[in-house]
Design a protein that fits this description.
The protein is of the alpha+beta class. It has a single domain, classed as Folate-binding fold (2-Layer Sandwich), CATH 3.30.2270. It has two helices and six strands; from the N terminus they run βββαβββα. It is globular. The termini are far apart. One of its GO terms (biological process) is tetrahydrofolate metabolic process. This is Sarcosine oxidase subunit delta. Pfam families: SoxD.
Length: 109
């Protein structure tokens, strides 16, 4: 069981109060995008064993989307931050690198 904290309303609760929404920081493809770009957006997602940046929604709370960094192998949560943030905040990157010194964030393109 994950214990998550919503960065929008600051409620800490079990994961059942939230809903996962997949990979964070994806470049959305609009109507003018190519079929290849749209296919890559829909189907080619990261699914690592280890550190992953994800989208979550506080379904039974404020209803807002946010991003979270966690380790998919150990379920360790490194922190959460608002969905409008374009990159993981420095304090979350530091928390990740404390446990995984070689980890590098690759901005989704």
């Amino acid at each position: 069981m994950l214990i998550l904290t919503c960065p929008c309303c600051h409620v800490t609760a079990e994961e059942t109060e939230f809903h996962g929404g997949g990979e964070a920081h994806l470049k959305r493809i609009g109507p003018g995008g190519s079929e290849e770009d749209f296919e890559r957006y829909l189907f080619m997602r990261e699914n690592p064993k280890g550190v992953h940046l994800e989208r979550w929604r506080h379904v039974y709370g404020c209803g807002k989307w946010f991003h979270m960094a966690r380790d998919t192998a150990t379920l360790e949560v490194f922190g959460s931050y608002p969905a409008q943030t374009l990159a993981p905040p420095d304090h979350i990157l530091e928390a990740i690198r404390k446990r995984h010194p070689d980890w590098q964030w690759q901005r989704a393109s």
